[in-house]
Amino acid sequence: MEQNPTQGEYIVVKAKDQGVQVIGLTRGQDTKFHHTEKLDKGEILIAQFTNHTSAIKIRGKAVVMTKYGMLETDN
């Protein structure tokens, strides 16, 4: 049974600096980059884990909000 796409986990990423990168990584035997977004300071991205996205990598200074709480990157 395929999961309804609106039922997946979401995260919110808010850029605290220019050029924050949000990178989606694939599921499967080999993990690969499949999508990249670049955010400017103050921009917000809402990202979803899907059948294709198993992980999200964030480069740059950002706040990440999940149902588990809020995190900030160190750099």
Explain how this protein is built.
- The chain has 75 residues and is mostly beta strands.
- 0% of the residues lie in helices and 55% in strands.
- The chain contains no helices and 7 strands.
- It has a 4-stranded antiparallel β-sheet, with no helix packed on it. Strands 3-2-5 form a 3-stranded antiparallel β-sheet, with no helix packed on it.
- A hairpin with a 6-residue loop joins strand 2 (20-26) and strand 3 (33-39).
- The protein is globular and about 35 Å long.
- The chain starts with 9 loop residues before the first strand and ends with a strand.
- The model has no long low-confidence stretch (mean pLDDT 86).
Question: What's a quick, concise take on this entry?
Answer:
This protein is an all-beta fold. It is 0% helix and 55% strand.
